[in-house]
Amino acid sequence: MKIVGFRELKPATDPNALLDLEAPDPVASGHDILVRVKAVSVNPVDTKVRSRAQPAEGEVRVLGFDAAGVVEAVGEAVTLFAPGDEVFYAGAIGRQGSNAELQLVDERIVGKKPKSLDFAQAAAMPLTFITAWELLFDRFGVQRDGGEGQTLVIIGGAGGVGSALIQLARKLTRLHVVASASRDETRQWVQELGAHQVFDHGKSLADELKRLGLTAPAYIACLTHSAQHFPQVSEAIALQGKIGIIEADGDLNIRPLQQKAASIHWEYMFARPQGTPDMIEQHKLLTQVADLVDQGVLRTTLTQVVGKIRAADLLEAHRIVESARTIGKVALEGF
């Protein structure tokens, strides 16, 4: 089978940072399904692993943490899927990724692809919607159709996770959703997704909340440059409020939260795929996301198909993601 992988850590500007290679076809066993990959999406985690995680000598690392495709074969313990099923998923951090014609993935973190979407549109969704769903409902503990009278502030509203979180909060809860955007095109994007109000994360958070007529928010999702924003977030959060973070780009001083009894909640969607007792919750939530897409409640956040699943096009997608100016998600389709 064709794969795209790397042996050495190189910048995305180096044409050899990713390589077109061949590998033996994998064989499904246990809870694994074998998926013929039709489309993939690139996330910041792809670029971070490519630039930081050196493979062992003589080994090739295959990236890709978002995919949509067709089940080719199933392991003997599989009960959720059968050959021919169209699926989408975000994979596991410790396994070979989706930048390959065939991929093994545990059925318990896979959902059936939304019928109303093509493969590229579907591949843009899993990682960011799992992250946003787990943050909103599992980490923050917001109830479906709950949150009346409370505000959710999203820093980084136009990115992949922010684009998913805006939709989930607006469509499935009664939270007042306030998202950040700093450019005309990103402001328009977050408003189209359903944000009630928009602010500029390049300005003082306290000043922006005051301008919008908002008091201390119950929830703040800090999805980008967390170390930079954290002092202002700590000041703004309500008494007993909850702060959600998906990655810290520096040390966080949590001491100011003590007298507010405020809490920090880390969201890492790769935790369950490592084998938690509730691992199957990712299958369940992806099933719900697919149903909501087909009902017209949620929409894909795909904004650009860069090309095919090959080294040159994947590197271009990596460069786009590394620019930190993406709106929604970028995908690649076909080999």
From TrEMBL:
Q: Which CDD domains match?
A: AL_MDR
Query: What is the superkingdom listed in this entry's lineage?
Result: Bacteria
Transmembrane residue ranges: none
Keyword terms, alphabetized:
Metal-binding, NADP, Oxidoreductase, Zinc
Cross-referenced InterPro entries: ADH-like_N, ADH_Zn_typ-1, ER, GroES-like_sf, NAD(P)-bd_dom_sf, Zinc-ADH_QOR/CCCR
Q: What are the residue boundaries of the Enoyl reductase (ER) domain, all occurrences included? A: 12-332
The record's listing under SMART domains reads:
PKS_ER (SM00829)
Q: Which family does it belong to?
A: Belongs to the zinc-containing alcohol dehydrogenase family. Quinone oxidoreductase subfamily.
Protein name as it appears in the record: Zinc-type alcohol dehydrogenase-like protein
Q: Which organism is it from?
A: Caulobacter segnis
